[in-house]
Amino acid sequence: MSTHALLSHFDRISDAPTAIPRFRQFILDLAVRGKLVDQDPNDEPASTLLKRIASEKQRLAEEGKIRYRQSPRLARADEVTFRLKPGWRAASISEILIDLQTGPFGSSLHQSDYEKGGIPVINPASIKNGRLVPIDAMRVGTVTLERLAAFKLRERDIVMGRRGEMGRCAVVTEKETGWLCGTGSLILRLPECVSPPFFVTLIGSPLVREYLGGSAVGATMQNLNQSILMGLVVGLPPFAEQHRIVTKVKELMALCDQFEEARNEREAGRDRLASSCLHHLGNANADTLREHASFYLSHLPSLTTRHEQIKQLRQTVLDLAVGGRLVRQDHRDDSASELLARLQRALLVERQNESSRIRKPLASSKRDVLNGIAFPFSWAIADFDSVSAIVSGVAKGKDLRSLKTALVPYLRVANVQRGYLDLSVIKEIEVPVDEVQRYQLRRGDVLMTEGGDWDKLGRAAIWSEEIPGCIHQNHIYRIRSAIKDELLPSWIALFANSSLGRSYFEAASKQTTNLASINMTQLRSCPLPIPPTSEQRRVVARVDELMALCDGLAAQLHDTQLKSRQLLEAVLDQALNGSGAKIDEHADHGQAIKA
Predict the structure, then answer these.
(1) Beta strands at 476-481 and 446-449: parallel, antiparallel or unpaired
(2) Sign of the dihedral defined by the CA atoms of residues 501, 503, 507, 511, in that order
(3) Same domain, 346 and 449
(4) Which range is most confident: 102-116, 237-251, 287-301, 548-562?
(5) pLDDT given for residue 12 in this prediction
(6) pLDDT computed for residue 299 by the predictor
(7) What pLDDT, on a 0 to 100 scale, did the predictor assign at position 11?
(8) Using CA atoms, how far apart are residues 507 and 173, in angstroms rounded to an integer?
């Protein structure tokens, strides 16, 4: 497939989230395989370059300008994973480099040696996108620099990170001459007949990164040693072709920058339009909602290109629901105030002698306690404690040696997500037999997380008896409606997961830097808007309908992105290797790949 044919597919594959990064890798892959520029039979062949490199190394060693090394390992053509182009030669890195040096040992460079305003020290974190970017906190004074003078960088050196992400490297320019190589870096010195920018392209290519990543050692952080790097075999092109490759790579990377900028502008436009639509939708009343919703829903496929946008739509639906704007109020509905009285009476009977814990409903003047929202006057407002029974779960770590126990399944915070339960992993816990009934879940129980990081604060989902005999841990609150057929568990969960509920829990929670949690008192005190039961059912049904639409949209987006990725990989594979699936340039997005 030609480059023209490849670019003709760009509109169909650019929606793949990884499209631009994959194009960049693809360019480097073409470059190091000799497929990016044409070969010129007049170029001096790489075999001659290798002879010149060997002579130069011998001379420098005799002059004492480089350390003595063992003879380089001579590479064979069959050690390269692709067919070498005319004029190219298989070569080990040990054949190419003039010198290779590891930065100073940690014992030679201490934190106390760093000095504000001094000379930059280049560690892997300083190597960014093929450039050397100094870090202010990593600089040394002239005394330390002279003590470690053997590790000073020279123009045309390659600095390569040997920790973390493999393949990061950059060329030392005149500006960086005299900077210090850090402990986590390598200095690679090249002969005059090897282009430093080409060598950076080579090391940063997918082929070499894969080799280095697979060979590096370390369980938590990859580390690259000299022997691994020196044993690497690559394809070496003629010197003149190296320059042509570098020029072409720059040209194509600039084109990728343009593609990326155009894509970002397109996505920013979509984001603005989607945000504007969601804003109007979120601020619509029952009379204007249908018009805004109709416009937004009719343009969903073109507006939605990321799952985050669907997440925002789900949140807007919840906020409309609990604000009384998703469905119209009906004067024929039963009174919400009478419903509230029934809930309180039912809870009073259940609590028996604990009536002192029941709070009175909030007065009408306090109807806007949640973020200043004016709820429909047909609704009632109470707090959680006056309409539901709230308990915490079983605590781990009790001494059970003298007790009769049972092994039962239990829910952890990880199982309770916002709006659904993740039951893929269920653990078991040993508890006293006489406590099982106390913590056992019933169908319709609302489960809410106590906290953790901000995402875990106040997540709510409904139990539907998926696992018989299941209980819940103490970091999950169980909220049980006094009359679940009249105060619907679905309504409670909708409110808890809405922006109104989340704002209350965030404001009431105990907070540290990255963690937040709500206690039982704060949860019981949370105001809860309560529509008439008939309206609750209409709202829940409408939310279910819109969430199903979001589910379908998410599935469609996933399918589109999957097909884009498959088409992207097929196109690149065919352009790179001339193999793989055939591409129909005239087929629609989903039918472009043929077996």
Answers:
(1) antiparallel
(2) positive
(3) yes
(4) 237-251
(5) 60
(6) 59
(7) 59
(8) 53
Q: Does 168 fall in a domain?
A: yes
Q: Does residue 15 belong to any structural domain of this protein? A: no
At 386, is the secondary structure helix, strand, or coil? helix
Residue 29, token pair as written in the block: 């892959």
For residue 427, what pLDDT is reported? Answer: 93
Angle (deg, nearest 10), helices 533-577 and 489-497:
60
* Strand pairing class (593-594; 582-583): antiparallel
With b meaning 16 or more CB within 10 Å and e meaning fewer, what string describes 166-202?
Answer: bbbbbbbeeebeebbbbbbbbbbbbbebbbbbbbbbb
Tell me the residue length of the chain. 595
158/51 same-domain check: yes
Domain, as residue range, for 134: 45-237
Helix (H, G, I), strand (E, B) or coil at 525: coil
DSSP state letters, 56-82:
HHHHHHHTTSS---PPPPPP-GGGSSS
Spatial separation of the C-alpha atoms in residues 595 and 591, rounded to whole Å: 11
- Number of structural domains (the chain) is 3
User: Does residue 364 surpass a pLDDT of 70?
Assistant: no
pLDDT tens by residue, 461-505: 999 888 889 999 999 999 999 999 999 999 999 999 998 999 899
List the Cα angle 267/273/278 in 5-degree steps: 120
334 touches 532 (CB < 8 A): yes
For range 435-447, the mean pLDDT: 92
Residue 579 is classified by DSSP as -
CA of 433: how far to CAs of 28, 178, 218, 238, 470, in Å?
A: 65, 73, 47, 79, 13
Secondary structure element (H or E) that encloses residue 391, with its range: strand 388-391
Please, are residues 533 and 488 in contact by the beta-carbon 8 Å criterion?
yes
Residues 548 and 525 in one domain: no
